[in-house]
Write a structure and sequence with these properties.
This protein is of the alpha+beta class. It is built from 9 helices and 6 strands; from the N terminus they run ββαααββαααααβαβ. It has one domain. Strand 3 and strand 4 form a beta hairpin. Bound molecules: iron/sulfur cluster (2 copies). One iron/sulfur cluster (SF4) binds next to helix 6. Belongs to the UPF0260 family.
Length: 182
């Protein structure tokens, strides 16, 4: 189950499609190059398109929610989130277990870019990239605000403790969730 790019059909909605997106794997926080070179509070003064690669990567809060499968009604476009995680998502850390080589296992993993962001209506409401693209501030629990990568988990804003691997889940349609932070 969970073959990358596989279309999933729902008996209720007739036509549903699974989606996922890539994000960084944080080995440390903040990344050392960022600590040395980034403009202080760069996310408040730079456009997304002006950020360095390191700054862009550091925006990810590590929530893991973009690595959950979504189902989309093709007739209405409505997105249903599930609590089923990509097989490569480490459910404890909420990081990709094989980020550099992830496409070997998950070829449909999408690389997030500023240009693509505006077309991804299914990103979580709390996603830092989505918030900044809308001109909204980062939430107070964001690791860039707290200096602590665990703050996203303590705030209950990540997939930690709420997700199941696609290798164990069974049909996606049985796992639709309505979390308030999606
Ligand atoms: S391959 Fe990695 S980054 Fe991509 S969806 Fe899966 S866990 Fe997330
Ligand atoms: S939803 Fe956004 S902030 Fe959360 S892991 Fe994905 S890219 Fe990072």
């Amino acid at each position: 189950m969970g073959a990358a790019g596989a279309r999933t059909f729902c008996p209720m909605c007739a036509n549903l499609l699974s989606k996922r997106i890539s994000r960084r794997r944080a080995a440390s926080f903040p990344p050392l190059p960022l600590a040395r070179t980034a403009t202080p509070r760069f996310w408040e003064v730079k456009r997304l398109t002006e950020m360095t690669e390191t700054e862009w990567e550091s925006l990810c809060d590590g929530c893991g929610k973009c690595c959950l499968h979504k189902l989309q009604e093709e007739d209405t476009g409505h997105i249903h989130y599930t609590n089923v995680a990509c097989e490569l998502l480490d459910l404890a850390s909420c990081q990709c277990a094989d980020y550099v080589k992830r496409w070997d296992t998950v070829p449909d993993c999408v690389k997030l870019t500023p240009r693509l962001l505006h077309r991804l209506a299914w990103m979580p409401e709390t996603c830092a990239y989505r918030l900044l693209a809308r001109g909204e501030p980062l939430p107070p629990w964001h690791p860039l605000e707290t200096g602590d990568p665990e703050s996203v988990h303590r705030a209950g804003m990540s997939a930690r403790g709420r997700a199941v691997s696609e290798l164990d889940a069974g049909p996606l349609e049985d796992h639709i969730v309505e979390w308030s932070d999606l």
